[in-house]
Design a protein that fits this description.
The complex is a heterodimer of chains A (455) and B (390). Chain A has 455 residues and is an alpha/beta fold. Chain A is 69% helix and 7% strand. Chain A is elongated, with a radius of gyration of 41 Å. Chain B has helices spanning 2-21, 23-43, 63-73, 87-95, 109-114, 130-158, 163-170, 187-218, 221-227, 232-261, 271-294, 298-315, 327-332, 337-351, 359-369, 376-385, and strands at 52-58, 78-84, 101-105, 120-126, 173-180. Chain B is elongated, with a radius of gyration of 29 Å. Classes of the chains: A alpha/beta (455), B alpha/beta (390). β4 of chain A pairs parallel with β5 (173-180) of chain B, so a sheet runs across the interface.
Chain lengths: 455, 390
């Protein structure tokens, strides 16, 4: 048991060291999650569009038409940049991107109103952004309601304002947008982006690490020890390492970022934490499974990045889930982000409790189980595989390396010995030669000595 | 001169073989864009979401309130109405994501209305889901106003006023909205027209950068440059030639899909858009070569290209207008090829204004295309010196 825990911790520690020492992985695990939300929040910090430039064509030129346009200009939604003499001029200004809308007050505007008939104001909107349409509609509608009340008041002179209200508006209505009171763009899109960042950076980072290992294996630079002999423990160790990193990142992403940017943060802490557990687990095993398809460090970019865009849409946060074609809805179920986005949006935005997101919550646990099994199968298969060296293979190769080294050493030793013998022999022979020469020299010397004494 | 052409073609042929040698290229250059084309056009084929699930709390349960509900059911965007017995139940259904909004009709509506007590109908929508929320609001608001007008009109008609006069009294000024180019407020027109080229441009940025830097990583850069006699311009153009051809084919597919099959607005014909699409691809390639030359590391230049491609989606301003962004980002948006493409699309396809009005955007795309001339000599230097550090 203790041995197993030691192995898990060893794998986990090695994985964490690899993370820290690899700047490419650090980009995904740290830099992107830290900076990307800030960038996005900054991008949408305006929340809504104000003072959309429009042009006005006043064909009526009466007190009333001027009042209508003046009040329009005063709304926060619209800003009249120019008054034009005809629609031709207005169109020209819109062509040159000076205005995104035109307001046409027709010639019979005041005459119809004074004779108690309905008058129509035409508005023309550039449809390059839906928010222009929204501003133009709400701006002019506000002004028309305001003026309508004045006109009605004049007609029913003598009534108190309360009586007037009753006459003109027998049933009132009010509008409440729950959970995103400003109807802002930021509050709507950022929660989805945050969850997607968790899943996608994890997939990319884990993929890059797997790619690196694959490359190292291919070139024989990766040697793993006995800690890597049990696939289950290796899987747990790796998952634990990623989980640690992302537990920290989630605190930043899901609590600090919404706080920093004043987004709706109605989440109950315990609900959020409880929800994060299966979300992170599902993401971890999902990443590990996907990482098996990565063959080198950089291919993850090409395979996984673009998926983020469809994933936002498939989650149902933008295009309503009730209107997503059945095929895509079924496909969306396999991505942790789908359930994560829907659950988190309602927990953080709508103050939902765990019981309200029970569908997403259980789905995430199911995904966790499925991806865990898949990852485990992949690991087991991987370690048995002949093509890619696993533990056994590495051990065999190690032994082989040792064998060949010993063999070589033996050979060298043998050679050295023979050289040694050779040298010895040579030394003997040289010594003998020297002796001979020495003897000869002495003989000669003796002979010459004798010759001298004789002579 | 014929020798030069020969070298470029030879490199192009070599690149073609590199592209077919790994499934990665086919996956990211053909399968990924095709998948997104099919995905986005089929996802939003309705144009405007219809039959959104909505709820109602009818605390009054009178003939007036039932009349309101019957009318609401007839609206296109509002779907089946679920009845809830009280506010808490409806709110809970909203938290569970079963409905996007609900109507609250207070007790005594009919009674109060006829006694001139001005009862109050409340409309609640879930702002966390922006699109369904605003669509439901539009229907419910109209419905509530009409219910009120119906009561008011009845009173006035009873007093002997004509229909014209009644409307002239109840709503003296009426607003007539014209949505130019997209009268049905079709979301698919609004989103896919930019999303599809955005995905394609992202792939162009990544593949261009990746294919150049893998030469360095695999240590084949010298061989590649030698084929062009060390002329880096010839080497790069030969390498990008088959990619350009394939990407233009992919662009043609989305152009035919959007403007041919789906018949999205293309008021100046298809050619201004075809030109813009080809220029978007070349501009993205130019930008990627610029980055790949400036940053001599596969990882960092690919990261930057990816960031640029992904960021161009929000910053081009087709979902949230650039006008509403902080000034720094407004200025920065000009550095994204997709931003110029989007503006061309608005002018030429959606609004159909004279070609010359968008001339500057085409010029800007041309500018991205010649960007590599600034720093491509750096790439040559790197290619001869580089060693890959994992």
């Amino acid at each position: 048991m203790i041995e197993n825990i030691r192995k898990i911790l060893f794998v986990c520690g090695r994985e964490l060291r690899k993370t820290v020492s690899d700047s490419g992985v650090m980009v995904f695990f740290l830099v992107v999650p830290l900076l990307y939300p800030l960038l996005y929040a900054y991008l949408y910090s305006g929340e809504v569009v104000r003072e959309v430039p429009v042009v006005a064509v006043d064909q009526n030129r009466s007190v009333m038409s001027r009042e209508f346009l003046r009040k329009t200009d005063a709304t926060p939604d619209l800003h009249i940049v120019q008054y034009c003499s005809d629609m031709e001029e207005a169109r020209n200004l819109m062509y040159h991107h000076k205005a995104y809308g035109a307001i046409l007050v027709p010639e019979d505007f005041s005459s119809r109103l004074t004779s108690g008939l309905q008058a129509t104001v035409g508005t023309y909107c550039d449809m390059s952004g839906l928010l222009y349409y929204k501003s133009l509609l709400s701006g002019t509608t506000m002004v028309s309601l305001d003026m309508n009340r004045d006109i009605q008041k004049e007609k029913l002179a003598g009534l108190t304002s309360e009586q007037l209200e009753v006459q003109t508006m027998p049933i009132r209505n009010e509008y409440i947008t729950m959970f995103n009171p400003a109807n802002g763009f930021q509050s709507f899109i950022i929660p989805a982006i945050l969850i997607l960042i968790i899943q996608q950076t994890m997939v990319l980072g884990v993929g890059m690490m797997a790619g690196t290992e694959y490359e190292q294996r291919k070139t024989g630079r990766l040697l793993l020890g006995g800690e890597y002999n049990n696939p289950l423990l290796v899987l747990i160790g790796k998952a634990f390492a990623y989980l640690l990193v992302y537990a920290l990142m989630s605190v930043y992403l899901l609590m600090l970022v919404p706080y920093l940017f004043h987004m709706p943060q109605l989440a109950h802490l315990s609900t959020l934490v409880a929800f994060m557990v299966p979300l992170l687990l599902a993401c971890v095993f999902f990443s590990i499974v996907l990482a098996f398809f990565v063959r080198d460090r950089e291919s993850g970019f090409l395979l996984f990045v673009f998926v983020s865009v469809p994933l936002v849409f498939i989650s149902g946060i933008s295009w309503p889930a009730s209107n997503i074609p059945a095929f895509w809805r079924v496909l969306s179920v396999i991505f942790p982000s789908t359930h994560g986005i829907n659950g988190f949006c309602r927990i953080a935005g709508d103050s939902a409790l765990l019981g309200d997101v029970v569908h997403e919550y259980t789905s995430l646990w199911i995904l966790t189980a499925v991806y865990f099994m898949l990852a485990l199968l992949a690991f087991i298969n991987f370690y048995r595989s002949k093509h890619i060296p696993g533990y056994e293979f590495i051990k065999a190769r190690r032994d082989k390396v040792v064998d060949t080294m010993t063999e070589r050493l033996d050979k060298v030793e043998g050679k050295l010995l023979s050289v040694h013998e050779d040298l010895q022999e040579k030394r003997e022979s040289i010594r003998e030669d020297l002796k001979e020469i020495h003897d000869k020299v002495r003989q000669r010397k003796n002979r010459s000595d004798r010759n001298q004494s004789n002579g | 001169m014929p020798l030069t052409k020969h070298a470029v073609l030879k490199i192009a042929y070599r690149e073609l073989r590199r592209m077919t040698s790994r499934p990665l290229y086919v996956l990211s250059m053909v399968i990924a864009p095709l998948f997104c084309y099919i995905f986005f056009t089929s996802l939003m084929k309705e144009g405007l979401p219809e039959n959104l699930p909505a709820g109602v709390v009818d605390a009054d349960n009178s003939s007036v309130s039932r009349n309101i509900l019957r009318n609401l059911d007839a609206y296109q965007q509002t779907g089946f109405i679920r009845q809830y017995s009280n506010f808490a139940e409806a709110r809970n259904a909203m938290q569970k994501g079963q409905i996007y909004g609900f109507f609250y009709i207070p007790k005594g509506l009919e009674h109060d209305a006829s006694n001139q007590n001005q009862p109050l109908i409340s409309i609640y929508t879930n702002g966390s889901y922006l699109i369904p929320s605003s669509l439901l609001y539009r229907d419910m608001k109209t419905m509530a106003t009409m219910a009120s007008a119906a009561v008011g009109r009845q009173v006035l008609l009873a007093k002997g006023a004509g229909m014209d006069q009644a409307m002239g009294f109840l709503q003296p000024i009426q607003i007539d909205m014209h949505a130019l180019g997209n009268p049905m407020l079709n979301y698919s027109v609004y989103l896919t027209n930019t999303l599809l080229p955005a995905i394609l441009a992202l792939m162009v940025l990544m593949i261009t950068c990746f294919s150049i830097h893998t030469e360095l990583k695999d240590g084949t850069a010298r061989e590649w440059l030698d084929m062009a006699d060390g002329d880096i311009l010839r080497a790069v153009s030969g390498k990008l030639l088959p990619q350009t051809a394939l990407f233009i084919l992919m662009a043609a597919i989305y152009l035919i899909l959007l403007y041919g099959i789906l018949g999205f607005p293309h008021n100046n014909g298809i050619w201004p858009m075809a030109l813009a699409a080809v220029m978007l691809i070349l501009a993205s390639q130019g930008f990627a070569v610029f980055i790949a030359s400036a940053i001599p590391s596969l990882r960092w230049s690919l990261s930057l290209c990816t960031l640029w491609g992904v960021l161009s989606i929000p910053i081009s301003g087709f979902s949230f207008p650039v006008m509403g962004m902080p000034p720094v980002l407004r200025a920065l948006s000009w550095l994204f090829p997709l931003r110029h493409y989007f503006l061309i699309y608005v002018d030429q396809a959606l609004n159909g204004i004279p070609f010359m009005c968008s001339a500057w955007f085409y010029v800007a795309l041309l500018g991205f295309m010649i960007m590599p001339l600034l720093d491509i000599w750096l790439l040559k230097r790197t290619a001869y010196k580089y060693t890959y550090l994992p």
